[in-house]
Specification:
homotetramer, mainly alpha, about 70% helix, elongated, DNA-binding
DNA sequence: AATGAATGAGGGTTCATTCAT
DNA sequence: TATGAATGAACCCTCATTCAT
């Protein structure tokens, strides 16, 4: 059995049923092996959750890192959202999993939360910087960060890879909307390709794949 | 024991630990009674979850109903977001709880999902109508509805009543941001009181309570 | 509420579901009162079982006592069976309840078992005496007593007061069959009224009520 | 642990304490394993009861099938009783268990009752056929079937393998008594080996082993 | 690498019983 | 006489985990 599949399955189940609502029997059954066999790959149920969280955070970090190259602060934000949505919708492994209290060991939880917090604070810094140089509308960075995080976390609850939209389309649309929310003036801030989408799709409505 | 307290406690726990991560012993212990006593109020653990969901939906419905009086479509949306955020931050009972697969009985789940879907579709209709009369920027109503729902659902994960912000402040800020995202032109669409807030708070940053 | 009804209901439930399979909630619900109210009549669940047993034994004792007047040993046996079957089929109170191990307190169980044993031994004495004076076929009294007891105990499992047979008909038929089993010669031992039944019913088949 | 032992133990306990009066802890304790281990063999407490019932019915069916070879109707009946008593007294697995209402799932209960009913009706047919060809005394087949079933069901309540009688002795004695009950004339119907028993045992009293 | 069997801990639920009202 | 609320104990069952094979 491929280890990769194990984590994808776990991510899927944790996301749909929650950590405590997922039993190792569920996973084993889904993978076509026995509960006992799982212990050849993982030492713990917790480890599964932990690793899934780690990969999710790595993906978020990557999305952020790759967005840093953008020129403007708004551009960075827009790119970061785009990257992250793309990642989430592309691989079932990269799921934003809601962290249930007490599911992870204290140190693990602390580590995950610290990593998330670091990402969040970096994100807030971008917003604050953008506000300072007037490329982003005055707003509260912390609140806006939460607001956007919520939108991103929710994707896994409704996005269906077999549905009408590709991940890139969703990524494009969401990043555009958030950019719109943050840009001090709609007209001058929107990047060129959004214009293309508006044209192609007619009134910016997402077209089916 | 007050029945109200029971539901608030349950909502709190389900939100923090997930449905399966919450044991009746946790609840009972928190309430200062025994597990068995819980069964004088509820017939089932499931019923607790169900009722919490029902009340959450009622609150959302109320938020929507009370927003209908607004003149413009954007105004309705803004008011709805404001109302709902206010409700969520005000009472621990009104929590947007993530529905874990299989936690509710099939008919219950169906009912809850149907109700949520109805709210969602009404919300989408507002967006679509706004787009049609050009009071809302061209966008995909379904996607935007999901995007906003995510932001609202996430609130319970980070909002702290003992923190620096009042619920009304958060409600004001979030509804303003979403309005900004949707208004075709920022300047002309923003309602008067947002201007007041901008003034009072200095650059729209949320002030501490 | 009539106390009598309580015991009848209890007897019915114990018989259908067993002692442990009957909850006080079942009884209370059936009686239209609350569990707590039951404790105004009985101090214990056990007491219910105990009293039902006592009455069942009293009925058996009465059946035996009233049969002693018969002239022959076989006549006594026949009458005893007739009386007991009549009692069982007449009143829902008089049920032969199978005694589950550990249901009664040790002393109570001992008492009930002693009483049953006394009845049984008296019954065996009749058989033995009959064998001695050749009015009953040579057989093992103990085994025959068990055999007949089984037939009697089973009645509550199948007899339906609303069915085609009256209790007296069943009593007549069963006592006749057992008498047949025990009489050294069928022709000379059968009492007169069996002849009547044979005549009336055609070939001894039980007629509908 | 041998699966066979599990069912024997279960049968024993259900018989002595009733289904609801038997806890899995009792069984596990008796078997020297833990409650949880039971679930490696059975999916349910109910399944234990169900399987025990099934085996009991299979034994009854076998007893009936093997009796069909007998020439006369009375002979069949006699043999069937003999076979069944032998089986019951031989193996603790083959216990006639009283079915408590609601202990089995509706479909299971229906199945068991249907099977029992089939056996019962076949038995009644034998009686009726015997009455028709005058090899059995005129009587009501249904009532007689109940009467005999009761005698058989009761055996498990009193028979003690460590007691003075072997199972075959009991089987011989009971089948002889019922044959006596049903034969139109005692003298001519009794099979030869009963005579032997009468001789050996002195007046047909069962000798100790 | 895989598994069947076993298990301690705990989870949801029922139950007989008590008691203040 | 009746009851709603409370509870300790027990019950059936599930779960994560282990281990010999």
């Amino acid at each position: 059995m491929k280890e990769q599949v194990l984590y994808e399955t776990a991510a899927h189940w944790f996301n749909k049923h929650g950590y405590h609502g997922t039993s190792l029997a569920d996973l084993a059954n889904d993978l076509g092996i026995t509960k006992a066999s799982l212990y050849n790959y993982v030492s713990d149920k917790r480890e599964l959750l932990y690793k899934v969280h780690v990969r999710s955070i790595e993906a978020a970090k990557a999305a952020q890192d790759q967005a840093m190259a953008e020129d403007t602060w708004l551009g960075k934000i827009r790119k970061m959202v785009f990257n992250y949505v793309s990642a989430i919708t592309r691989s079932p492994m990269v799921t934003f999993i809601v962290l249930e209290d007490g599911a992870l060991a204290p140190e693990q939880a602390e580590e995950i939360l610290a990593a998330r917090s670091a990402l969040d604070h970096e994100f807030r810094r971008w917003i604050a910087a953008g506000i300072r140089d007037r490329s982003i509308v005055p707003c509260d960075p912390k609140l806006v960060s939460f607001l956007i995080t919520g939108g991103l976390a929710w994707i896994t609850k409704w996005y269906d890879p077999d549905g009408p939209w590709t991940g890139e389309q969703v990524a494009e649309a969401m990043s555009a909307m958030y950019a719109r929310m943050l840009s001090p003036s709609f007209a001058e801030e929107l990047p060129a390709d959004v214009g293309r989408i508006l044209t192609e799709a007619g009134l910016f409505t997402l077209p089916a794949k």
